[in-house]
Amino acid sequence: MSFLSGLLQTLGFVWRFLRVPFWLGFGFALGFLPLYVHNLDAQLRGRFDDFSWDLPSRVYARPLELRAGMPMSTDALLLELDAARYEADAAAKVPGTYARKGAKFVIARRAFVDAQGAQKQRRVALTLTANAVASVSDADTGAALDYARLDPARIATLYGAEQEERRVVKLEQLPPLLVAGLQAVEDREFKHHHGVNTFAIARATLANLFAGHAVQGGSTLTQQLVKNLFLDNSRKFTRKFNEAIIALLIEARYDKHRILETYCNEVFLGQQGGQAVHGFAAAAEFYFGRDAKDLKPAEIALLVGMVKGPSLYDPRRNPEPALNRRNVVLAAFHDTGLIDADTLKSARAERLGVADTPGLPRNRYPAFLDLVRQQLARDYPDAQLQRAGLVVYTTLAPSTQALAEAALTKTLDGLGRKQAETQGAMVVTGARDGEVQALIGSRDPADPGFNRALDARRPIGSLVKPFVNLVALAQPDKYSLATLLDDSPVDMAMPNGSRWTPQNDDHESHGQVPMIDVLAHSYNLATVHLGLALGLAKIRGLLESFGLDAEINPNPSLLLGAVDLSPFQVAQLYQYFAADGHALPLRALRGVVDAQGRALARYGVKSGAGNYIQPARLVTFAMQDVAAHGTAHAIADQGLGALRAAGKTGTSDSQRDAWFAGFTGSHLAVIWVGRDDNKVTGLWSWSGGVAAWVALFKRLPSAPLAVPLDGIEMATVNPQSGQRTDEQCTGARQLPFMAGFAPTETDHCVMQEIRSLFGGN
Q1: 61 and 20: one domain?
Q2: Alpha carbon 451 to chain centroid, angstroms
Q3: Is residue 24 part of a domain?
Q4: I want to staple 584 with a disulfide (CB 3.0 to 4.6 A). Which of 6, 155, 434, 643 is the partner?
Q5: What does the DSSP 8-state code read for residue 173?
Q6: Which residues contact 31 (CB under 8 A, 6 or more apart)?
Q7: Same domain for 135 and 185?
């Protein structure tokens, strides 16, 4: 009793000193706590009632459309599949996988939505032969298909300030095993507690005390969500107190479905550089290259396991801990009845199955993305692109881009160390539609710096000559490809008192030369005489009609290419010939879809009227001669004659710029090689532009160029006189003419007949 009375006496003594602070503290808490909670509640409602995330816009290449007869090689198809993160799999049952046996492929296409609408999952069988698609069919039914479209490769992401990768989904869009498994592993009492699980906290506290370190956590999913959305990761009492209060408030105001759905879209699950991966839908693409709904049990277990520590259990950097954690989670799935014993056994036997390439391309093709941004800026402000979760479908062809990069790099590296400062740029488009399939702005294609394809404006040299010819051939009563042009010396007085005396590259004049040979061999003097006869104003007006946003030189030097254009602008010019005399705007966009899958815009082909189709065909025929026998004969010499390509070389003064613009039935490619400091390279077109073009088309599947003959008639002529002649005459050539304008006078080879009578040669 003495001890008890002493204790009570001591407590009474202490109470006399503490009662005032106690009642003051109690009163303060009683008055302050409701206000404090009310303030937290206001913050919660301000964030949660109209909750939304800033969603980056995702940028995709074009869907690959496969149809019988189209050019396609095994290498190109594999490049396409790799870019779209398809994985080789002997069964090819899971979307995003393919199986190959020689030239036969089975491709399990993913479901996707683009500007053309929704495309369902489908297994496609494909057979290739002779660099073309032989057949396309449904792999499950065997039914022949007119075509099959594969989901496109993701090539870039347009982030806002947060740099957060997220794909917001409804809870119903996630696999049921993922939703139930998350609760089984992280919070088994989720459906029953009110935000804070006191029993779990006590259990975790005891476990951690006995272990001597943290081995268990007591936080509910609601508390984890609070920490992610509102608080930091500190272990301070005030943070834990706020976490508990806000968790209780969330549970009081919102239903479990809303809370769990928000958690599944917010949870942090990985990092790539400065880009943070949030939510299971984004993580499914990041790690496995598939939609979350297509994940297998083992893959679901890996993602659920990573909630505990995304860095610690990163399957790419820490595969062994990740595998162990996945198997622990699979065991939890089995213990709670979510999977049976057979599923557990097969899932534990699987590899991690994580795609080698992370699925967060920030800017895979910087030069092409510059063009995409330029064209998007016409319709969408930056803020919308960075926060509205738009899906942008472009025209980029990953296989074309990869092969173009390899071709340009190989060509420039092959020039040797002395040309280490030499740069290059390339633009590749669809010949008939003007879609930009590839764009390279630097010797290093990954360099996000100065984009020479769009911004380097350099003298185009002889690339201008086909347009001089076009103006002439639009007057069929005066000019044809057989018309003899004067290649005599030029000596003109200029307004400043100087003399203009251009030269041919060989420093020779060639007398009277047929127009087709003037273009094929790029004779400067004959081109100047022709251009002056036509009138500079007409040629300048033609070039200005393409809307190039460039100042067109009004002086005679224009006739030899003294006009500064970018490779992209040159491609815009030559697209006219590639598209059979139709002016097509070059475009990098196919369509834009909003975050809900609704099409906002479709960008179609809008061709010009085609007023000079037949003259354009005659110029194209002449440019085929350039590639076969003229200044670009390396194309035929290197075994590409079957493409019947058309094109034109161009070299600026003192060999500072080496150009080539050439096209087949499928593709137009424009290449520039030169130096940023404008110093002499010593390169001719054949060693720069033509060499890169050849390197590309040796690997790029492309259709031969067939020039339509509508409105054209063929006639055999004597190139020395321009008149008709007999086919058997020496030097006779068959040339195209505008219908109704072929020469009528016949120049028989009389001397040849006389010599043959006397046995001469």
Answers
A1: no
A2: 16
A3: yes
A4: 434
A5: G
A6: none
A7: no
Rounded (to 5) percent helix, strand, coil in the chain = 40, 20, 40
Domain endpoint, select from 316, 349, 382: 349
The token duo for 482 is: 């057989």
Q: β-pairing, 657-663 with 667-675?
A: antiparallel
Q: Is 162 an active-site residue?
A: no
- Residue 305: phi, psi to the nearest 5? -65, -30
Q: Could you tell me the CATH number of the domain that includes residue 296?
A: 1.10.3810.10
Tell me the C-alpha distance between 238 and 243, whole Å.
Answer: 8
Tell me if 662 sits within 8 A of 645, measured CB to CB: yes
Is 488 a member of any domain? yes
Residue 20: domain span: 1-50
Q: Are 111 and 95 in contact (CB under 8 A)?
A: yes
Q: What residues does 649 pair with on adjacent strands?
A: 660
Q: Are residues 177 and 289 in the same domain?
A: yes
Q: How many domains does the chain fold into?
A: 5
CATH number, residue 490 = 3.40.710.10
Catalytic option among 80, 87, 165, 186: 186
Whole-angstrom distance, CA of residue 455 vs CA of residue 434? 19
Distance CA 476, CA 579 (A): 21
Distance CA 558, CA 544 (A): 12
pTM over 0.90: no
Q: Could you tell me which of 480, 700, 479, 664 has the C-alpha nearest to residue 580? A: 664
Question: Does 32 lie in the same domain as 116?
Answer: no
Q: Do the bridges between strand 164-166 and strand 154-158 make them parallel or antiparallel, or are there none, so unpaired?
A: unpaired
- Final residue in a domain of this structure, among 157, 188, 212: 157
Encode pLDDT of 253-276 as tens digits: 778 888 888 889 889 998 887 788
Q: Is 52 left (phi over 0), alpha (psi -120 to 50) or beta?
A: beta
Does the residue 412 lie in any domain? no
Q: CA quadruple 480, 484, 487, 488: dihedral positive or negative? A: negative
Would you say 107 and 86 are in contact if contact means Cβ atoms under 8 Å apart?
Answer: yes
**Residue 9 burial (10 A CB sphere; 0-12, 13-18, 19+):** exposed
Which neighbouring-strand residues pair with 117? 114
Q: Per-residue b/e over 36-68, b at no fewer than 16 CB within 10 Å? A: eeeebbeebeeebeeeebbbbbbbbbbbbebeb
CA atoms within 13 A on the CB side of 29: 6
Query: Which of 137, 399, 462, 687 does the annotation list as catalytic?
Result: 462
**480 burial type by CB count under 10 A (0-12 exposed, 13-18 middle, 19+ buried):** buried
pLDDT in tens, 361-401: 667 899 999 999 999 888 887 777 766 778 899 999 999 99
Confidence band (pLDDT; 50, 70, 90) for 7?
Answer: low
Same-domain check for residues 310 and 270: yes
Q: What are the tens digits of pLDDT across the range 485-538?
A: 999 999 998 888 889 899 998 899 999 999 999 999 999 999 999 999 999 999
> Tokens 């005599």 sit at which residue?
488
CA distance 109 to 321: 32
- The residue with tokens 């991966």 is 277
- Tokens (6 digits) for 179: 């939703």
Q: Are residues 170 and 279 in the same domain?
A: yes
Same domain for 91 and 142, yes or no, is: yes
- Asked, for residue 706, whether it belongs to a domain, the answer is no
Count Cβ neighbours within 10 Å for each residue of 578-615 and write b for 16 or more, e otherwise: bbbbbbbebbbbbbbbeeeeebebebeeebeeeebbbb
